[in-house]
From TrEMBL:
It comes from Onychorhynchus coronatus (Royal flycatcher). This is SNX10 protein. Residues 10-127 form the PX domain. One of its GO terms (molecular function) is phosphatidylinositol phosphate binding. SUPFAM superfamilies: PX domain. Belongs to the sorting nexin family. Residues 157-170 have a biased composition (Basic and acidic residues).
Amino acid sequence: LIFIMHLQEFVTVLVRDPRTQKEDSWHSYIDYEIFIHTNSMCFTRKTSCVRRRFREFVWLRQRLQSNAVLIQLPELPSKTPFFNMNNPHHVDHRRQGLQEFLEKILQDALLLSDSRLHLFLQTQLSPEDMEACVSGQTKYSVADAIHEFASLNRRFPIEDEERKKGKNDADSDSESSSSGLRPSDDSISCGCKASPASEES
């Protein structure tokens, strides 16, 4: 007799390690580490770690809702004017709400088919670059972006080659440039903790 074991698919998502980041001399914001561990066939990588801020979650929810109009998406934690980033209770309450939001989204097969969700969870691309990638306006595909971020390189080799040739378009320092895989500034602060699958290629 041949016994075939069907491993149940799982997706573990953790929203953790809130950190205060300075935007400029007057403004600061908090970003959170999103850790994914899964055996789901839906995911290009089985483990990943990125950092995202609250307004990027807002963008994600809006995009997912516009592409899945028949689904009532879970709510994000409310954006209260009384939110105090120096109050650990406020910060942890928001962190918990963001984790519950992602946990519910990742249980929906239709939402899991949206490339924006995967770019949000497994790359450090800005919302503008995620949108450009999904729309086919970048030299890299969604899978390319995820694999490239996994290797922890900050840009594609092709962009480096163009730089060496002295091409002006690749020399742009614009943060919103979508000509190369330019992660958002938040990526610099992603302090991924030791994970059980750090050998993931």
